[in-house]
Write a structure and sequence with these properties.
The chain has 331 residues and is mostly helical. It is 51% helix and 9% strand.
């Protein structure tokens, strides 16, 4: 069965329905992208500061011992540039797709975070929807464009970063280790094969930034609320959108309980519970901050095309592949 082409008129559907043109919103005085620029500059600084904690690039690590004022900040450039590239491409994937599909959206608002609060130096970015979306196909395109565009940067960055990573003996004392997802485990295996006993991968800062890029993409793909995955879920199953959100929260709580139990059995200390508590916090944020609701569409009757359904299922598979059960642990 061939897919029907979308109607050329944004207010006419392929089902023969005519959608009334919505009333124009009241005009507000344009303030320009001042806050967008300010927040982006702050995010550049916080990610650069965060990047100084990630070593593994001989060229940029040399700046750590420089006697010139503030030149030590340059050691964080590989991490910051890579992570910002992933986030910028992700957000502008949403932005340009929304504009192409006739929806009014804001420029991205990046969220800086001191590295003492979040290791990456940023909590990502958001884009405000300023108008209703035409139909499920347009909603799907806008939602899926960001994660897929960001992944198109994160995956090559991970391959490049791992190509510049090395195998080293495991440190004798306690050290932090990034959790492995199915995707990162496969990428490490492709680069190094089976790791010899007592050896670990000393990752290049670009690989570390790609790890955070995978994590941000995976969290955005959770099918709940108005996350990217929630919008994709609404486009796929509009009548079951709230149920998808509740199932997601229940799955996160279950994951947190299992991770906390396994970590505590392996090392019976209270700090071992932290990797599990992370998922409880995320579940609470989705339940009480994001909720299970979703905005209305101009034409809720237009069906989702078959090709988009296939891509939507692929996005859920990507979520499973990219989400590490344990984010960061101490070994």
């Amino acid at each position: 069965m061939t897919e029907r082409p979308l109607a050329a008129d944004p207010f006419t559907t392929t089902n023969g329905h005519t959608v009334p043109r919505p009333a124009a919103p009241p005009r507000r005085r344009s303030r320009g992208p001042v806050w967008n620029i300010v927040l982006f500059v702050l995010t550049c600084f916080t990610t650069l500061l965060a990047g100084t904690m990630f070593s593994g690039s001989p060229t940029f690590d040399a700046f750590r011992t420089s006697r010139e004022p503030f030149q030590w900040l340059l050691s964080g450039l590989p991490f910051a540039a890579t992570l910002l590239a992933i986030l910028v491409v992700h957000e502008f994937g949403h932005y340009f797709t929304a504009r192409a599909r006739g929806a009014a959206v804001s420029l991205p608002y990046f969220i800086p975070a001191p590295p003492v609060i979040f290791m990456a130096g940023t909590l990502g970015a958001i884009i405000r929807m300023r108008s209703a979306v035409r139909d499920r196909n347009a909603l799907f395109d806008i939602a899926a464009a960001g994660p897929l565009a960001g992944l198109a940067v994160a995956l090559p960055a991970a391959l490049l970063g791992l190509a510049w990573s090395t195998l080293v003996p495991a440190p004798p004392g306690p050290h932090l280790v990034f959790g492995e997802s199915i995707l990162t485990r496969v990428l490490v295996w492709l680069r190094f094969g089976a790791l010899p006993d007592g050896m670990v991968v000393s990752t290049h800062p670009i690989a570390d930034a790609a790890w955070f890029g995978f994590l941000v993409t995976a969290l955005n793909l959770l099918p709940a609320g108005q996350l990217d995955g929630g919008r994709i879920g609404y486009a796929l199953l509009p009548r079951h959108h709230a149920t998808l959100g509740r199932v997601t929260v229940a799955a996160l709580v279950t994951l947190g309980a299992v991770v906390a139990a396994l970590q505590y059995v392996a090392r019976p200390e209270l700090t071992s519970l932290i990797p599990g508590v992370n998922w409880f916090v995320l579940a609470a944020l989705i339940r009480f901050a994001l909720g299970y609701g979703h905005g209305s569409l101009l034409d809720p009757l237009e069906p989702l095309t078959r090709g988009r359904r296939v891509v939507g299922i692929a996005c859920l598979v990507l979520l499973v592949l990219m989400l590490p059960p344990v984010l960061i642990r101490a070994d």
